[in-house]
Amino acid sequence: MHISAVDLNLAVVLRALLDERSVSRAARQLGLSQSATSHALSRLRALVQDPLFVRTRTGLIPTARAEAMADAVRSSVAMLETTFFAPPPFDPMTVERTFRLRPSDYVEYLLVPRLLERLAKVAPKVDVSARPALTEATLALEDGQLDLLIQPTRSGEQTDGFHMEELWDERLVGVARRGHPLTRGRVTLERFASASHALVSPRGQPGGIVDDVLKQHGIPRRIAFTTPSFLVAPQVVAMTDLVMMLPARLAAALEAQLRLATFEPPLEVPGFRMAMFWHDRHDSDPAHAFIRREIAQVAAALPTPASLTRRRTRRRRVDQARS
């Protein structure tokens, strides 16, 4: 007989009978009627072709066959209970897993080094793979190509079957090489628009939010260089007379390294909100919940645009004092 033909509930009844040595007490433990428990015992006897229990003046006594089965039945039922109802506690120090993320290079530059530094201390066997998705983002999450998607979100955005957690708010600042004419004197809308610009377009589309705002003023601009990379564009700006708009946190991180100058744009440019997305099937996974908490904690510790502004002000004062 194959195990698939066996009602595994009979193992639970057999364990109760072995523990209680009484049909009525076993029935109470199981929440069954006495007749249902007696019927289950009859089925057990037919299944193993042994009486299993014999009645005496002190109660039921297990047969030799039942005694031989007792340890295996108890451990098997306990293991099934643990499997279905008591998952083992999650220990980040021992878990071995690779989490697949899809951040932009801007997010990867800011977040991943800090995340890996933290994981080395709290989860040394957890790995991170930042990769492009081969299909549309939500499909990549759904079919398992990605564990997490990190990208800007619109206010109130929700997608059935997916979860979202906001990570940080970001604003845009102007960036040019140090000594660029635009960084001397007041940056007016006309001076800003007349400069040649670099544009980061992750999806390769022409124009962007700055162009939308400029159109409202009836002012065009020249985009001399377009790239999908948030890291390549600042390198070009640092070596040319192009200017561009960058997320404030990234601009502050690259300012000293590339000898860039930042300035407040002369127009109201909306910022954006960065968030991480995951599929519903991962929501209750302890390991997945762990990596989400770690990413959220790293994101919360990123310098805020306000603190970056204060830092730049202090740096300028130091430079002026030295000169």
SSE topology:
Layout: H1 9-20, H2 23-30, H3 34-48, E1 53-56, E2 59-62, H4 64-85, E3 97-102, H5 105-122, E4 126-130, H6 137-142, E5 148-153, E6 162-170, E7 172-177, H7 189-194, E8 196-200, H8 209-216, E9 222-227, H9 232-239, E10 244-247, H10 248-258, E11 260-263, E12 272-279, H11 286-300, H12 305-322
Parallel strand pairs: 3-4, 3-5, 8-9
Antiparallel strand pairs: 1-2, 5-12, 6-12, 7-10, 7-11
Helix pairs in contact: 1-2, 1-4, 2-3, 5-11
Q: Could you walk me through the main structural features you see in this protein, from its secondary elements to its overall organization?
A:
The structure is a single chain. The protein has a five-stranded mixed sheet with strand order 4-3-5-12-6. It is rod-shaped, with a radius of gyration of 33 Å. Helix content is 46%, strand content 21%. With 323 residues, it is an alpha/beta fold.
**What's the shape?**
rod-shaped
SS strand fraction: 15-25%
User: What is the rounded Rg?
Assistant: 33 Å
Distance between the termini: 92 Å
Short description:
With 323 residues, this protein is an alpha/beta fold. The chain has twelve helices and twelve strands.
